[in-house]
Here is the input.
Amino acid sequence: MTGKGEILPLRASEDVVIVRQRVRALAAQEGLKLVDQTKIVTAASELARNTVIYGRDGTALLEAVEAGGRRGVRLTFEDRGPGIADLQLAMKDGYTTGGGLGLGLSGSKRLCNEFEIESKVGVGTRVTITRWR
Amino acid sequence: MSVLQQVLANKEAEVLSAWIAEQASDRTLQKGGSKSDALKEQSAELLGALREGVQQGNGEDIQAPGWTRTREILTDISAHLIKRGLTPAEVATFVFSLKRPLFQLVQTATAKTPEVLANELWTTNQLLDRLGLFITEVALESREKTISRQQTEMLELSTPVVKLWDGILALPLIGTLDSERTQIVMENLLQEIVRTGAGLAIIDITGVPTVDTLVAQHLLKTVAAARLMGAECIISGIRPQIASTIVHLGVDLGDVSTKATLADAFAVALRKLHLMVARMPHSGTSTE
Here is the structure.
């Protein structure tokens, strides 16, 4: 069900710009509508920035996926940062430890069809999102 | 007199023609214009300078005064090749392409004395390696200079505050709003508000491809700061897909007034200043 993927590094804020551009290109190629393209690009921007700010040695995996006749874009953000101790709290609107609006994680979830987050303190965090056509 | 000195002094023309042939057959250097007269001339000049440098006897220390002319010519050549789109590593191949012709002539001259040959090849090789490293460094430096110049230009170009009417400013934002640029945008706008005493500022985000929470936060902060200075902001250029995304993200634009287009925002601003746009009388006969 997975197509060929592309792995991009996430170490500096410039990398976030590149991730946005690559995600936009992939979403357009997979035939997502403009609104859906914008949504997944925005979610990618949030998660990529989180990875850069909080994580360490982060990467973004971009994949074109197909399931049950549907096509879509799946993104996986992975880092080896400190991890998130309380996922429930982190997912709450307005909660931030970095001075942002505190809407990055919860907002990204609302922008996608599927959202999965795994985190282990001291090991790292992985967020996977999918947007179907 | 070293063999390299002799070769450069007596067989300069031979070295040059072999080198130019070498350059012409190299695909990287073809991109750099190796078949053009400009590069041939520079090659000849460089060989001349090299001959003088070797004669001064400064050996391999290419920072020595005897190599000043060589360094100047290499700097010119580097600029020329970078302009033709070569990377710093490719620029170095220009110097390295001199190895084969030079080695061959050194070899011919010392064919009967192998121990001298090894020695001479080593010195020649070291000299050319140093010159290759030098030209790479120069090329890298000039590329870094270009990049930092472009960054500075972008910072300035992308943040113009324009006056639409007495008391109405507009700030058309374009591209990625990373934090460094946003800071400048914000300061520019606040300064212009003070300078012109404008009471209304339109921030147009038509040219901003992605509005995420960071961009939204910057916009909200700018609006709040402008408000503290007594100016009201209108955010325009909110396209349907951006509006939908902002809602899903959960960003609360609160009491900031927003409009779909800059024209709509301008109309609102005029109304707030109790101004109206009217058709001129007799406009039926004139298009002006």
